[in-house]
Design a protein that fits this description.
heterodimer, A: about 220 residues, 5-stranded parallel β-sheet, 9 helices, about 10% strand, B: 7-stranded parallel β-sheet, 9 strands, globular
């Protein structure tokens, strides 16, 4: 990698940290014009910036408003880079379906997890909030997903997660997907109780957990 | 409840603390059991909110069955700002689902007008609930009228979604301040209506602020966007005549405590904290108020009775050291689907360990 390329990648990361959408877009256009590998521009540029922001959230130096604007900058840049990406089928990234369970619309946590997983290279399908359990299953099957992430804030809707695990078994597809759960009321013991594969208390932990679960699963790549 | 405990009612202990005297024992005071009571009565959460009479009767019924301190409570003001909501009626439903927020872009912030509290459809039901509650007072009952609201920051987030509010906080703070002004005035208007209607009753002002926790915003953002508005509400409410504020500081507010500590809470206030804040920390920041909390509600919902008993013991033993008064309670709403066995176990542990020597 040339020094010039390295500088662009660092500036891309900074554009996310500075929450500067216009700068992210301009730098991505510049990077493409200079022949920088778009995959590197994402993974070592934009995503690095988002990772820094995520670490800041974990340390308590950066909060939801900053993460939201940083993600706007990241996605603005990614929109420039995506058409230039070449993804070979046999090296496809892990696919993840994520959403907030039916009856619940508290989606800040889910949005942050989605942002950080995407920054880490996972291919995300975000179903939004108030998602019927059957839709998680249908989408995961259709997308050939590797993992399903469920979020819930409320103690009542959280119980749907147990129903979801049962549904996967009844449909005969439990073994096809890793299931990770999270949300203010969810705990590691609850995750174990319902038979989920993993739990994460925040977005950056979700990335680490997802990597651990999917590397153990042994399909796809990051 | 044992005969020994029955001779010293929770309400007598609470009244002692409210008069700044030491009670005979730690009491248990349940946190927002509206939905739990409905499910225990064989109906749904939707029924609790749709039928104030049923809600009152179910809360009274469960208080009598368990022997716990009865505080009739119901959401006081809600809705009327516009938007579109879906109400689920199944076993898992707990809150309305916004299909469209009242505010979805910047222009709508400037056009938004606060609804008049007295004409809100929800207020009729809330008032009916309180009118039922003031007609009687059962043994072991406290504050038979509660004005119960979300704080201005949380209410503003509910008007437009935190995804928008968070972005506007950094990009267009004037939009957020406009929403905060409208919601603050609305809450004060509601508190005044309740005071004018029920001021002869044993009335409590309750405010919860989950969306301004540090899991969401920074202490500096709390200082700008939540603190001045909540403080204004507290000052005006106390000036109206409310004597005590029940302040539910929901979530991880550790970074915000220096600001909360500057707000008047009443004489004394009741500071409700979640498991994210240590009891000792709360006592340090609020040396003149009663500390209320803070078992993790999820332990009550999914823990074994042994886990519930032990968690309660640990909290009660820490709480007893708080010199200005301590009430054992969940750190947030009693989970609607908690088991009665766990509730009774919790109460037993409070009684086993809660006596002051």
């Amino acid at each position: 990698m040339t020094k010039a390329d390295s500088n662009i990648l660092e500036e891309l990361a900074n554009s996310v940290i500075e929450m500067d959408e216009k700068k992210a877009v301009r730098l991505c256009e510049e990077a493409m014009a200079k022949g920088v590998d778009p995959y590197l521009a994402i993974s070592q540029g934009l995503a690095q910036g988002m990772k820094t922001m995520g670490e800041g959230y974990e340390k308590g130096t950066c909060f939801v408003p900053e993460l939201l604007l940083a993600s706007d900058a990241m996605y603005a840049g990614m929109n420039v880079l995506r058409p230039h990406l070449k993804v070979a089928k046999d090296s496809a990234n892990y696919r993840v379906v994520i959403g907030v369970v039916e009856g619940d619309t508290h989606d800040i946590g889910k949005n942050l997890v989605k942002i950080m997983l995407e920054a880490a290279g996972f291919q995300m399908t975000d179903l939004g909030s108030d998602v019927p359990l059957s839709r998680f299953v249908e989408t995961a099957v259709a997308e050939k997903a590797d993992m399903i992430c469920l979020s819930s804030l409320m103690s009542t809707t959280m119980l749907r997660m147990a129903d979801f695990i049962t549904m996967l078994s009844e449909e005969g597809v439990r073994e096809r997907f890793k299931v990770m759960v999270g949300g203010a009321c969810v705990s590691p013991s609850f995750a174990r109780q319902i038979g989920a594969d993993g739990y994460a208390p925040d977005a950056l932990a979700a990335v680490r957990k997802a990597r651990t679960l999917l590397e153990a699963k042994g399909t796809g790549a990051l | 409840m044992s005969e020994k405990a029955r001779k010293v009612l929770d309400v007598d202990c609470l009244n002692a603390m409210l008069s700044r005297q030491k009670p005979a024992r730690v009491i248990h005071w349940e946190m927002y059991p509206v939905c739990f009571a409905a499910i225990q009565a064989g109906k749904t959460i939707y029924d609790a909110y749709a039928d104030p009479k049923f809600s009152y009767e179910s809360q009274k019924r469960i208080a009598r069955e368990t022997g716990w301190l009865f505080q009739p409570i119901f959401p006081s003001i809600g809705g009327g700002w516009g938007g579109e909501y879906k109400l689920l009626k199944d076993d898992y439903a707990q809150a309305p689902i916004p299909v469209r927020y009242p505010v979805e872009d910047e222009a709508e912030v400037w056009k938004l007008e606060a609804p008049e509290v007295a004409s809100l459809p929800s207020v009729k039901g809330s008032m009916d609930f309180c009118k039922l509650a003031v007609q009687e007072k059962i043994e072991n009952e406290t504050f038979n009228v509660t004005f119960n609201v979300s704080g201005p920051f949380t209410t503003s987030a509910e008007l437009c979604g935190m995804n928008r509010l968070g972005r506007w906080m950094l990009r267009n703070p004037e939009l957020v301040h406009r929403l905060l002004r409208l919601t603050t005035d609305h809450i004060i208007e509601g508190a005044a209506l309740w005071w004018d209607t029920f001021k002869g009753a044993d009335i409590l002002f309750t405010l919860s602020e989950p969306m301004s926790a540090n899991q969401v915003i920074s202490p500096k953002q709390f200082e700008e966007f939540a603190f001045p508005y909540i403080k204004e509400i507290h000052e005006k409410v106390l000036a109206m005549g409310y004597k005590h504020i029940f302040c539910h500081i929901c979530g991880d507010h550790n970074g915000n405590l220096p600001y909360w500590a500057q707000m008047p809470m009443g004489d004394p206030g009741i500071i409700s904290i979640g498991h994210q804040i240590e009891l000792e920390t709360a006592a340090r920041f609020f040396p003149n108020d009663i500390i209320y909390g803070n078992i993790d509600p999820i332990i009550i919902q999914i823990g074994t009775p042994k886990q519930v008993y032990e968690a309660t013991r640990q909290i009660v033993e820490k709480g007893k050291a708080i010199s200005n008064g301590f009430v054992f309670a969940p750190g947030c709403e009693l989970p609607p689907k908690a088991s009665l066995e766990n509730i009774k176990t919790m109460m037993r542990a409070v009684e086993d360990f809660g006596w002051y020597e």
